[in-house]
Amino acid sequence: MDGQLVERMGDVGLVVVVVLFGLLVMTAVVSFIYGLMTPNRGQECSEPIQEQPWLDDCAIVIASKNGAGTLRTTIEHALTNRVPVYLLSDGSDDDTVEIARSAGAAVVAYEVNKGKPATLFSGTNDLDLLDHYRYLTIIDDDTQLESDFVERSLEYFTPDVAIVVGRTCTLWPEEHRWNALIAYRAFAYWIYQLTVRTPQSWANALNCISGSNSTYRASVLKQVLVPETPYIVDDTYWVLETHRRRLGKICYGKNAWAWIQDPTTLRDFYKQNLRWLWGTSQGIVGHRIGAGILNKRPSIFEVLYVVLIGHWLFYLAGLPILGYLLVSQGAFFVLTLIATRWLFFYASLAIAAIRLRHFRLVLFAPAFVAIDLLYRAIWCHAVIKTIRQPTVEACVWDSPTRVAT
Length: 405
Hints:
The longest helix is centred in the first third of the chain and has 35 residues, at 2-36. The termini are far apart. The protein has a single domain (15-39, 54-405), classed as Spore Coat Polysaccharide Biosynthesis Protein SpsA, Chain A (Alpha-Beta Complex). The protein is α/β, with parallel strands linked by helices. It contains 15 helices and eight strands.
């Protein structure tokens, strides 16, 4: 009797796996065909809005080191928002200053490379920007803003809002259309902003903002913008300080679109993710995330952040857990778990392909598995770096190689 039961369970398991595989193939085919029949564009055009009189209260600030290859396009897109653009050259030794001036930006050139936060601190104070404007949009030198980015961002500024984080979209040039790293980022931004950033925004629990495309209340920057940020990611410090000091809400402005460049080489991908995850880990340690729970004085932000950390720990422990289940429960159980996870993953990937109008996303699924394993390794490396170096003396780094535009 026991042997027959096991045999029947095996037959049912085989049917389940076959059905799941069939659904995956069907989803891939439908998404591929749909993508072929739709235009390849990454955004949905929104209805135009009337010009707001408070647009005069905002300016765009860019800190750049050797960004000559992308700056002209970045500044031209920024100027379409009809606000002043300021370029702070952080010790550039290329044509950054000349290109920025010819493109229409007001330029302050510093001869020594001090890092992004230190340059922003010096520039905003030297130009008196924090007193002259009520809001500052800070972007990177390879960010391309939509023409209504500032307007859309300002719409979210109710009296209790401190920072508005714009929607991050991946620039996917045709010459890199089969680059798996760019594909991975395009999907990662989409799924993250849908499943994490949106609900966090509702609960005022955003733990991560985009240093490449966010708008800040000037009065908040006066308190969090310091020349010596203790973490390797400056905006990690800004967001944690905003929550710690209760300076206001941090909102996700999904209607404010910005396009950014992502790493195209494995080396740049590893270095950038390592810096981001290292900075995140530094912030968790440095701001003692979870201490409020132990002291029975937790905020909603801290509670939800601890839940997110628990998810990350489970994610990192996923492979050892599968190994344990393989030994204790058998191969069939593990294969069923993997197949179920793949079903949800592939369904999400197919929806992303449709929403982003990048049909080829569904073809990158095998590569995403390898990149996901690499990402776990980067996480572990970041934890080790945090243990060895929980703070930095200077927030200075080298940006990934940019694609000239």
